[in-house]
Amino acid sequence: MATYVIHTTTEDETKEIARRLGDVVAPGTLLTLEGDLGAGKTTFVKGLAIGLSIQEIVNSPTFTIIKEYEGRLPLYHMDAYRLEGEEDDLGLDEYVYGQGVTVIEWPEYVEEVLPEQRVSIAIAYTENGRTLTFKAVGQIYEDLCREALS
Ligand code: ADP
Ligand code: MG
């Protein structure tokens, strides 16, 4: 496992970090995003989308559960907040083991069906911004984070 901790003071800085990951992610990548409401999870996905050359505007998928975007690779943006107990019906595997990039907000609610190998990102409020903590599990994910974040 590899851990990276990055502090940002603006929304744009958070997007820029995410863009760097989006620039180098490969098919089949899984990222999860934890953090309180307003922490910056969807902001992070907007930056990721820039790195994936997605033209469409990325918004919170809260009312659709999964939104798909076309870019250099497909992006599957999921909000698992309202899924507690319903994760079996979701066909999550098709996304997670597919050819796109899957990013899941509120992974706490689907933890039982998520692979351990992924980058888990936690965004926390701090006095003057946000702290982003990246935990990469698996060689592919450690390599990805080293390339994008160090
Ligand atoms: P979430 O998806 O976690 O509920 P959003 O990304 O929708 O959060 O909203 C984050 C809000 O916090 C935005 O209004 C954004 O402008 C603001 N913000 C302020 N500072 C930061 C920062 N350093 N990183 C990300 N967002 C920030
Ligand atoms: Mg959100």
TrEMBL record:
<keyword id="KW-0479">Metal-binding</keyword>
<keyword id="KW-0963">Cytoplasm</keyword>
<protein>
    <recommendedName>
        <fullName>tRNA threonylcarbamoyladenosine biosynthesis protein TsaE</fullName>
    </recommendedName>
</protein>
<dbReference type="GO" id="GO:0002949">
    <property type="term" value="P:tRNA threonylcarbamoyladenosine modification"/>
</dbReference>
<dbReference type="InterPro" id="IPR003442">
    <property type="entry name" value="T6A_TsaE"/>
</dbReference>
<dbReference type="GO" id="GO:0005524">
    <property type="term" value="F:ATP binding"/>
</dbReference>
<comment type="similarity">
    <text>Belongs to the TsaE family.</text>
</comment>
<keyword id="KW-0819">tRNA processing</keyword>
<dbReference type="GO" id="GO:0005737">
    <property type="term" value="C:cytoplasm"/>
</dbReference>
<keyword id="KW-0460">Magnesium</keyword>
<dbReference type="Pfam" id="PF02367">
    <property type="entry name" value="TsaE"/>
</dbReference>
<dbReference type="InterPro" id="IPR027417">
    <property type="entry name" value="P-loop_NTPase"/>
</dbReference>
<dbReference type="GO" id="GO:0046872">
    <property type="term" value="F:metal ion binding"/>
</dbReference>
<keyword id="KW-0547">Nucleotide-binding</keyword>
<keyword id="KW-0067">ATP-binding</keyword>
